[in-house]
Amino acid sequence: MSYREIADDITSRIRSGEYPPGAELPSSAQIAKLYSVGKSTADGALALLRERGLTVGHRGRGTYVAEPETSADPAE
After folding, report:
1. What is d(CA 38, CA 24) in angstroms, rounded to the nearest whole number?
2. Is 71 among the domain residues?
3. 19 in a domain, yes or no?
4. What is the pLDDT of residues 32-49, one digit of tens each?
5. Buried b (16+ CB within 10 A) or exposed e, 43-62
6. By the number of CB atoms within 10 A of the CB, which of 19, 38, 40, 43 ranks highest?
7. Contacts (Cβ under 8 Å, ≥6 apart) of 22
């Protein structure tokens, strides 16, 4: 399984609500085990999710589903 396939699967899980905004995603080691891939493949999937704007990483704390951006200005 490629890192893109893993990222696509996690993307669909985010969009379905399985991983709601603010939810912590599995670590790269956990993703590697879940998808039976190497850690570098899991790291690639997490990097692609960040590039897509779907996740945010907090060094030492984990990767979380990004809050959806709103187009409305809250000051209005």
Report:
1. 21
2. no
3. yes
4. 999 999 999 999 999 999
5. ebbbebbeeeebbeeeeeee
6. 19
7. 64, 65, 67
- When divided into structural domains, the chain yields a total of 1
Tell the burial category of 1 from Cβ atoms under 10 Å away from its Cβ (0-12, 13-18, 19+): exposed
- According to DSSP, the residues that pair with 26 across neighbouring strands are none
**pLDDT above 50: residue 18:** yes
| Domain annotation covers residue 74 | no
Query: Tokens representing 21?
Result: 């905004």
Domain that holds residue 13: 3-65
SS3 letters across the chain? CCHHHHHHHHHHHHHHCCCCCCCECCCHHHHHHHHCCCHHHHHHHHHHHHHCCCEEEECCCEEEECCCCCCCCCCC
Q: What is the CATH number of the domain that holds 25?
A: 1.10.10.10
